[in-house]
């Protein structure tokens, strides 16, 4: 498992909101919903599309290519055409900074 990496300030991301950050040379979709932060690989497991370009509805991100939905809290695939989860990462906030640690 990697170390925590500072990716943004709390004030950089509206609630609700989303943005793409880079952690250890990987693109990660960072979400802010109901005062909590979540991080997923910015990849739809159906066709490799960029999840963060999709619409955020509550705790679901909708892939802009084919409409697959993923739960931002754990990366689980909620609707077809995606059948596999996308990787979820650990997030912590300290002193107004958002940190992400990539999971294996």
SSE order and pairing:
Elements: E1 5-9, E2 17-23, E3 26-33, E4 36-41, E5 55-57, E6 60-62, E7 69-71, E8 88-94, E9 97-101
Antiparallel strand pairs: 1-9, 2-3, 3-4, 4-8, 5-6, 6-7, 8-9
Provide the structure class: mainly beta
Distance between the termini: 6 Å
> Can you count the helices?
0
Task: Report the uncertain regions.
Answer: none
Secondary-structure element order, N to C: EEEEEEEEE
Explained architecture:
The chain has 104 residues and is mostly beta strands. It is built from no helices and 9 strands. Strand 5 and strand 6 form a beta hairpin. The model has no long low-confidence stretch (mean pLDDT 96).
Name a few traits of the molecule.
three-stranded antiparallel beta sheet, 104 residues, mainly beta, 9 strands, six-stranded antiparallel beta sheet
Summarize the structure in short.
By secondary structure, the protein is mostly beta strands.
